Amino acid sequence: MSSTTLESTPPPRRGCLACNRPLRHTFVDLGMSPLCESYVPAEKLDAMEPFYPLHVFVCDGCFLVQLQEFVSPEHIFTEYAYFSSYADSWVEHMRRYAEAISDRLSLGKKSFVVEVASNDGYLLQHFVRLGIPVLGIEPAANVAKVAIEKGIPTLVKFFGEATARGVLEQSGPADLICGANVLAQVPDPNDFVRGLKTLLGPGGVVTIEFPHLMRLMAENQFDTIYHEHFSYFSFLSAEYIFAAQGLTLFDVEELPTHGGSLRVYARHAEDTARPMTERARALRQREVDAGLLKLETYAGFGEQVKETKRKLLQFLIDARRAGKTVVGYGAPGKGNTLLNYCGIRTDFLDFTVDRSPYKQGKFLPGTHIPIFAPDRIREVRPDYVLILPWNFQEEIVKQMAEVRSWGGKFVVPIPAVKVLD
Ligand SMILES: [Zn+2]
Q1: What is the pTM of this model?
Q2: What is the 23 CA–ligand 1 centroid distance (Å)?
């Protein structure tokens, strides 16, 4: 019967987010995982929890590493728990950026700066202080509200071609459009970059920050893969997407944030006043030399990830068998990917702590590890503190220095499990 044949046919996979070729090659398969920002309140602990595949592919046409979209961004981002201002080093990172770029582009009272995914205004507040007109665009209403209360004009919307046209009509073209940790999160990067092209004034500059795929691969950062991140960019795959919409990447900075990020600088393709910088050329070449334009370079990553899991579990099993107490520090998205993939629950980690009051009193998605305020660690005096946001390890070790006074030790899980000296 023809209907039976139809039903037994697996659903067709969607094509590459960037170039629409069929996706045929696995980069890494982390199994099924809950949405990493959906912290569970106590009254919902017994309810069903949706899990979705974390299966990452690499495109054999444009080499974009990407997740299939299983969850709509509306579902993920309308009530988002991540408030950027809770991480001190991140706020400081963005203050330095605001000052440097205002200088470089000679921004002033007549300029117009737009930030896409402006979160709680952690960046735009610095431009406001410099007297530069700004507009934030932020889809999560609860987060945008915090920015508006701080006096930062914020539009509660997703960014793309349509939103860009609206802003252009209302406020005119932008001299600077910036975005940090947003490009990876858009389900249609072509529409997003088209929006940048539309809103950017002549001679204007776009800067976009994203975690660097080359670092993710070299340093085993598989825990930065989650449903909220659809794409994992190299300079080369970003260049491909920008070029397709008439934007040229002409400069790049390598940043230490999020385990190693790139900040790419784009301009209109026809704006030849800004030639490609030497450092952009050099990074591009390093990616080519690292094999990022060859499929086989991506093929070994899955095994590397499995070995990282085995080593972390080995450490935890040994510690618990020896009667040691182990707790977590932090409740970041990356922690949830790590803990769910490795199957680490309260059998290994008694609890975790987080500075964000939004997360305290709730439970980690999937693993249901309870989240307390950081003081809990001082009360319990554990033997090991596993730092889940390992990208903030220096800051955390400093904040929690007291742990060492009772002989406690800090542990990081990535790139491989390690007890810090
Ligand atoms: Zn592609």
Answers
A1: 0.88
A2: 8
